Structure formats: C-alpha cells, structure tokens
Amino acid sequence: MLDPTQFKDWQIAEEAEKTMLSPEQWQEKLGLEKGEMIPFGKTPKLDFIKIMDRLKDRPDGNFVEVTAITPTPLGEGKSTTSLGLIEGLGKRGMNVGGCLRQPSGGPTMNVKGTAAGGGNALLIPMTEFSLGLTGDINDIMNAHNLAMVALNARMQHEANYSDAELAKRNLKRLDIDPKNVEMGWIIDFCAQGLRNIMIGLGGKKDGFTMQSKFGIAVSSELMAILAVARDLKDLRERIADMIVAYDKYGNPVTTADLEVDGAMAAFMRNTINPTLCYTVEHQPVLVHAGPFANIAIGQSSIIGDRVGLKMFDYHITESGFAADIGFEKFWNVKCRLSGLTPNVSVLVCTVRALKMHGGGPTVVPGRPLPEAYTKQDLGLVEKGLENLLHHLKNVKKSGINPVVCINSFATDTKEEVALIKRAVEQAGGRCAVSEHWRYGGDGALELADAVIDACKDPVNFKCLYPIEMPLRQRVEIVAKEVYGADGVDWAPEAEAKAKRFESDPKYADFQTMMVKTHLSLTHDPTLKGVPKNWRLPIRDVLVYGGAKFLCPMAGTISLMPGTGSDPAFRRIDIDVNTGKVSGLF
C-alpha cells in the first residue's frame, strides 16, 4: 500500500493493478456461471438477465446508501467513503460489493477530475474507469443524437414536401414547432461554446435551419432512463415515450412519433449490463449509469442495486450531492421505483464543511484553504453542526438507520472530532471516524463496525409522500420537511404547468425530481448552515416523458458545464513505450 501523502492517485492505482485478479479469477471468486460474465478487457460486464434469473430466489443482502451534509465546493468525499467502507467491510471478512456511477468525460478532463475515489479508497482499473469504460456513455450519445438526426431530417422534409409527397414516402406531417424543441445534442465534454448554436445553415438540402443546443452526455434523458429502468423491456418502453419536441398545437412529439425509438433501443441494448470494477484492495464494485444529480436522480442504477443485493451480503451505493437532494431522491424516487428497502444511510461530513457552515471563509476550488480550515476552531464546528443535525433528522424521517461518518483529514483535531461525536450521539445517531483515504480498509474499520451494527436494527422505511399526492403538495412537503423552507412561491408559468400536470392522468405516476443548488439547503448557494425564514421559488417545471420525471426548478440549471482555465487534461499523458496513462486524479 502506497502512502497517498507521497503518491498520486494514478500511481496508487497503477501499483494496485499489479496484483489485480483476472476476469476469469473474478468469475470464480464471485461464483458466476458460464455466460454470466461478458468479456471486455480488464472491465467485463455482468449479464444482468442471466444472473437475476439464477439468483431470483436468493434473499437480498444488507442495503447501505452513502450521502453527505451540504458540501463545500470541494465535496465531502462520498465516493471515497463508499469505497473505503467496502474495503473496511472486506477487512472484516464480509461478502461485500457496491455499485457506483460512471464518471463523465467532462469533469474528468476539467477541474473536478474522475469519480474514482482517492488515496487508498480508490477504484481500479482507474484508466479504464475514467476514460469511457465499456462504452455505455458512447451508446447513450449515439442513441440520443440519432433522435436529433431524426427530428431535424423530419423537419427538413416537412418543410420541403407537400402532404401528398410525404405520403408517398410513408410519412405523416407532424407539424413540429421549431420554437418548441425540447431536446438538443449531447457530447461528453464541458463545452460552453456549444450551449447555444444554429444548425442547418446553407441550402434547403442542409437540414432545417433552427436554433439548437448541446448538453453534456450524462444530462441526457437516456442516462436518467438507464438509472431507473428495471430491465430491458422497461428501458425500451421508456425510450419510446421520450419527448423530443412539441407540435404547433402544443402536443408532444415523441421518439415513437419519429419512428426512431427502436433504433435508439438497439444502440442501448448492452447498456443494461453493469460493468465490473474493483477497489485497490480487490473487492468487487459494479459501475452502472451516471445521471445528473439535479435534473435527474443522481444515483447508480436500480439494475445495479438489484444485482448487487443478490450477489453480496452488504451492498453499498452512493447518492449524488447532499442529503437534501441525493438522499431525498434515493428515499422518495429510487426506493419507490425499485421496491428495495435500505438498511442504513451513511451521512458523510468533514470538519472543514462544518466550519464553513459555522461561518468560516469562502472555499474556492483551486485556491489554498483559508487558515481557519486547517487550525482548531471549536466555535465554528459547533455552529456548523446545525447543518449536520438537520440532514441527520431527515434520514431518520425515512425510517432508515443513520450512521454519521467523519471523513478524516490530517488537520482535524481530537477535540473537534469529539465535539461532533457528542452532538451526533445526543441526536440519537451512530458516529464513526474513518481514515480510509490514507489507510484503506484498515482506516475504515470503525465505520464498517458501525454499519454492521446498524444493519442489525429494524427498519421502518416510509416515503415522505404518497405517489398519489398532487405535484404542488409534493413540492411543498419537500421544501418544508427536507429543506426547512417556510413555503413555496410559484411563478405564474410554473404554476400553470403544475396545474396542467395535476389534471392530466397521464402524469399521475411521474416522479418528482427537485432541481436546486447542492451548495445550500435553499435555492441560494451562498446561504450556508440551516437558513431560517425563507421560501422556495419555483420558476418552471420540466417534463421527461420517458424517464417519467416532473422537475420543479428552483433556479437556473445549465446542462452544459464550462471548462475552466486550468483543466485536468493539461496534465494527462501517456507513456509511449507502455501506453500507460498518467495524470488522472
């Protein structure tokens, strides 16, 4: 084991891969039968249908979710903690595995870096994981962009041909409104220059001239569909219901209307099978789906959880962003759709985040941390505990057993840690310190023991609201109960949309996917701690017909991030003699 204070993540990954089991050895270790593992270099896929058919009668293992308090812009280390917990449970001799999201090429090549964890709580093979894996995102890009090809070609043909000429080509006029196109194109990079574009420039043979846009690949509704689909049949049906645009009378135009849904499903056929990766301590980790955590569910897939719970006695998954967003969607959407009951939710916090919520200086990525975050300050920690206890209370409302994990940094003091532990225990929660980043599984034993202990407790799981509740009431209860708002203020256009959705039976089973910043319990990212006397503004409601999401928007969300001035790709390179990649983090 290399010391992460002395070595980079890619160096730790490279060292761990020297003793990594082969796919054939993993097949034997996991007890998989012939045909249940699909070869793909170092990262084979698992045949979801075959494994679930064989293990359908096996009882599910313990289901553990990892979330966090409201983070600093640097994050709380949920992926690192998820991997550290898997390693810690492995050290305790448990049959453990997990399922994490696939990273997007945008953050990997930008400021955030890959989602492989860090230090000795790291996912391998890191290069394959970070650079496309087994091609699921590429399949999603092809399927999504094919829908846009179909749309633009259809608009061109309808503009150039009469109804009689369209009929000769076995086409009916869809009367698509060029000013009401829902979808855009996607690419898996942060490319701010593609947020708003014009296409079809030239002559009438060069497509339909219209304003268009690009989003990052993981923002595609197809990625959201992959995350919530239960099987291939469900995936196929949802793809057909995707809304591409609206006609001139306001009616939705779907991929089925464009007759492109079957071809899109063909591109997506292999994406339902999770990919097998590993921790640096050689425990299995499935990787499947990677949807946005604001407009979408921000979780790895239901399929991955279904497989993992059959294969492992302890199955670990992670929710994107803080507990007010990621855990709320896990609680009220993912669990409802999957029918799975979690045993434990691990709530990750750091001393530095608590200090920020207690009134500490602004934290800016890429700049040194202010001195307040590296020196003991019990006053800031104590004030910041309000945010942690707010999230802890929400987890307890779900009936899931909470375990608070203090993700340890070298600058944390014993007094600061003791203060956090006392507060959590007084609030009726378990609390553990974990040093997985530096020591891997050995550093996560206290956390692993707390999770094992919590899994023994009964669970009284319940969703926050019934699916039959009208949309505006759902938003009101989430705003008040989860965020701590006094109420909700609807913009006239948003309220008109909400009333229309509430009156149409077609939307009765659509899930509520709240959209707001992850940097505050409120809609304002500058407000830290637990703000009081505020109301949540909803300015619009987006609809995703295939994923079956209604997304109330409490702020402006860009589906295409921008690349910063010092992106990660400046430091990534290969060894021309070996082909090994360096510089990933």
Report on this structure.
By secondary structure, the protein is of the alpha/beta class. Among the domains are: 136-265, Domain 2, N(10)-formyltetrahydrofolate synthetase (2-Layer Sandwich); 471-553, Formyltetrahydrofolate synthetase, domain 3. The protein has 20 helices and 26 strands. The strands form eight sheets. It has a ten-stranded mixed beta sheet with strand order 5-6-14-15-4-16-3-17-18-19, sandwiched between helices. Strands 7-12-13 form a three-stranded antiparallel beta sheet, covered by helices on one side. A hairpin with a 4-residue loop joins strand 12 and strand 13 (252-254). Helix 4 crosses helix 18 (445-455) and helix 7 packs antiparallel against helix 11. The protein is globular. The chain starts with 8 loop residues before the first helix and ends with a strand.
